[in-house]
Specification:
- The chain is α+β, with helices and mostly antiparallel strands.
- The chain is built from five helices and eight strands; from the N terminus they run H-H-H-H-E-E-E-E-H-E-E-E-E.
- An eight-stranded antiparallel β-sheet has the order 1-2-3-4-8-7-6-5.
- Strand 1 and strand 2 form a beta hairpin.
- Helix 1 crosses helix 2 and helix 3 runs parallel beside helix 5.
Length: 232
């Protein structure tokens, strides 16, 4: 990889049997490039780690990112505090309706419009659990349908908005607003017997017709909602 970054004339000299001095210079240059790359990777890893030693969660921008995000989000002990630490800084919180709006990290502000956490009371004492995380994008992202279907199986459709429709009315709800994939972590349950299921809702362009996507298609996604559902 480092060799590809060198000028063509240096590569030609490196291959020449008549230029041993030049070959030494090129090898030294390659070592310096590797050192710079290593330092850059170390700096990047430090930037992605907060003061408590927890790594930030990368905002999903492709199918692989979604799978990695679900891997963290589906952990039983992943809490509201964890989500806040890893997904942004608190912009506003409304305890009455249990929604917390986060400001995306500066490095992502040109791509992420906003991050919203929804929480709910799990006990009469008011212990709160994370309900869902919703990520809205400034510009739609491209997601591989085939990768998600291979990982999570065939998806369902997100229910369209409820609208009072009259016969032959123009403003009837669309038949398609996006896909819903589902993931159930293996061998993960609470002492109470509850198990966790994660739904991955991909919001897309609304359509009056249900599209027929194949594994080769890429979905144009405007927002993603990761929802935690507890089953008995």
């Amino acid at each position: 990889m480092a060799l590809m970054m060198l000028p063509l004339k240096y590569i030609e000299c490196l291959r020449s049997p008549l230029m041993p001095g030049v070959r030494r210079q090129v090898r030294e240059a390659m070592r310096k490039i590797k050192s710079i790359v290593s330092c850059w990777l170390l700096l990047l890893s430090l930037c992605l780690t907060d003061s408590a030693g927890q790594r930030r969660v990368h905002y999903p921008k492709n199918a692989g990112d979604i799978i990695a995000f679900v891997g963290v989000f589906s952990q039983l002990d992943f809490s509201v505090k964890d989500a806040i630490k890893r997904l942004g800084t608190v912009y506003s919180a409304k305890p009455d309706d249990f929604h917390i709006v986060l400001t995306p990290f500066p490095s992502e502000k040109d791509e992420i419009e906003g991050v919203t956490l929804a929480i709910f009371d799990d006990t009469p004492e008011g212990r709160r659990k994370l309900d869902y995380v919703e990520i809205d994008y400034i510009k739609p992202i491209s997601i591989s349908y085939g990768e998600l279907r291979e990982k999570y199986g065939a998806p369902g459709y997100i229910a369209p908005p409820v609208v009072n429709c009259k016969p032959r009315a123009v403003n009837c709800p669309p038949r398609f607003v996006g896909y819903r994939f589902s993931f159930v972590p293996e061998a993960k349950s609470l002492a109470s017997g509850e198990s966790l299921e994660v739904s991955i809702n991909l919001e897309m362009e609304w359509s009056k017709e249900v599209p027929q996507h194949t594994d080769k298609d890429f979905l144009v996604v405007k927002a993603i909602r990761f929802k935690r559902m507890w089953r008995v």
